[in-house]
Write a structure and sequence with these properties.
This protein is 18% helix and 21% strand. Strands 1, 3, 4, 5, 6, 7 and 8 form a seven-stranded mixed β-sheet that branches. The protein is α+β, with helices and mostly antiparallel strands. It has eight helices and 14 strands.
């Protein structure tokens, strides 16, 4: 596994802009079970090992998206056809060579606008490594059907926010019989401790304090209101004493209760307890520099059970340097026009991928050619019913030194 680096503010800022869930919980707190583990559901895929810097995509795609879309479709995440790869989205945003991580916000945008192929279609969860771009219109067309409607955040730094998260985990905040999962950012979980002897889940691993800046993405799969850790070493476990002496009793004083998260870090299945670990509720309320998670935020996905594009573009493109190109599609209501009146951008094929051929690498001549598909259904909103129009493919080359050929 490659080393982690702290996420840049420009990567994290979009996550703060996601709509915040603040709806009324379905159940009262005393109606919820005291513990829950959605990793035992058929919709949660097996734990995998991080191979590059794709922790955001392990959390956001392989665990979160796979679970949420399979839950809607009633499919078990036990086959390649029902699992979703890390590197399809990761490779568009990682600079082309996988030298740095990618915020899962960027992969959520790809899920929303382009979709994602399943592992079977992609050829493996990370097939081709961190530089490969998939080729084949039919493969992209199939990916368009696997989408999200939106991503949202739950602010969990208060008891009320924690209750919203627990309701999401239990009933998806809509009364569903099976709840969801959530992604979050914190430091890598290197400073593990164990739950004390004689307490619930004794000997299991737990994070009592996140040590360092947010650099790593993980996935919450459940909770347990009974686990406990003696922060002030007084021999008792309390949630009603001011153990940090700030004059207020709140979650930052809690010694009882925590979330269960899954990871792909440090060997995947060999991390902590078969790839899963607890984190105390207290860490949700703490500021990052005091041992908390990033922005007190959990991020959740609303997947689309079914989606079929109405209008698509099938593109074959040849070029020697993909980072020099940007692809847009547009429409003009005047069929005689030579330029589009309206253009739409995409989070992919947008001056990305490093100085490599279109499919990646710089050796195989055939990799200069890529065939892909784009969902241009949004252009329909610019069309007049029963009136002719003209569709445009706009490929912009930014190459002032004429280095690329295509």
């Amino acid at each position: 596994m490659t080393g982690q680096t702290s996420l840049l503010p420009i990567d994290l800022l979009p996550l703060t802009k996601l709509p915040e869930i603040s709806q009324v919980p379905v159940l009262k707190s005393n109606q919820l079970p005291y513990k829950l583990d959605n990793s035992t559901q058929a919709y949660f895929r097996n734990i995998i090992e991080q191979v590059d810097s794709e922790c955001g995509q392990i959390s956001g795609i392989a665990y979160n998206f796979t679970y949420e879309i399979d839950r809607l479709r009633g499919l078990a995440a036990t086959t390649d056809a029902n699992q979703y790869p890390t590197h399809f989205t990761y490779n568009f945003m990682n600079g082309g060579f996988g030298w740095h991580g990618v915020s899962y916000f960027h992969c959520f945008e790809i899920l929303r606008t382009l979709g994602c192929p399943n592992v079977e279609t992609y050829g493996g969860i990370s097939e081709g490594g961190p530089g490969r771009w998939m080729t084949g219109y039919d493969l992209y067309y199939g990916a368009m059907k696997n989408r999200i409607d939106k991503a949202c955040q739950i602010q969990v730094g208060t008891h009320e926010g924690l209750m919203l998260l627990k309701q999401w985990l239990h009933n998806h905040l809509d009364g569903s019989p099976i709840g969801g999962v959530a992604s979050f950012y914190a430091n890598s979980p290197w400073n593990l401790k164990t739950l004390p002897e004689g307490s619930p889940e004794e000997g299991k691993h737990v994070i009592t304090k996140w040590q360092g800046l947010p650099s790593h993405a993980m996935t919450v799969v459940g909770y347990n209101d009974s686990i406990r850790y003696d922060y002030n070493a007084d021999g008792i476990f309390t949630n009603d004493l001011d153990i940090n002496y700030d004059g207020v009793v709140d979650m930052r004083d809690w010694e009882v209760g925590g979330l269960l998260f899954a990871d792909g870090w440090n060997g995947g299945i060999n991390f902590a307890d078969s790839g899963k670990c607890y984190m105390m509720y207290k860490t949700l309320a703490e500021k990052v520099y005091e041992g908390g998670i990033w922005n007190h935020a959990m991020h959740v996905l609303y997947a689309k059970e079914q989606y079929n594009p109405i209008l698509t573009a099938k593109v074959t493109l040849k070029h020697s340097s993909r980072e020099l190109l940007k692809v847009q599609c547009g429409v003009s209501q005047d069929p005689a026009s030579n330029q589009a009146e309206y253009l739409i951008d995409f989070p992919v094929f947008n001056y990305q991928g490093g100085n490599q051929y279109m499919q990646g690498g710089t050796i195989l001549e055939e990799n200069k050619i890529i065939e892909f598909g784009l969902d241009i259904t949004p252009l329909i909103s610019y069309l007049e019913a029963d009136q002719p129009a003209k569709i445009f493919l706009h490929v912009e080359e930014r190459d002032p030194n004429s280095l690329g050929v295509g």
